[in-house]
Specification:
2 domains
Length: about 80
């Protein structure tokens, strides 16, 4: 099977466009993942998960940090 020059150009253009699309998707996915695991961000996936778990096994008010601060300062919750 042989391709004409026009077919080869079309295949090449389609390949370049597919590569460009996939590259942009990969970059966006990497940014989303980086944001989700950013240790500085209070809304990172680990903090949200821990706070949800902590809230379900405690009274649901406050966080581990606020509960420790209350305990250290002798404040009854």
């Amino acid at each position: 099977m042989s391709f004409t020059n026009q077919q080869l150009i079309g295949i090449g253009i389609a390949g370049v466009l597919a590569f460009w699309y996939l590259k942009n998707k990969a970059v966006q996915t990497a940014k989303d993942v980086g944001e989700a695991v950013n240790p500085i961000d209070r809304e990172n996936i680990f903090n949200r998960g821990f706070n949800a778990l902590y809230g379900s096994v405690t009274d649901g008010e406050g966080t581990l940090g606020t509960d420790i601060a209350d305990w250290v300062n002798g404040i009854d919750g």
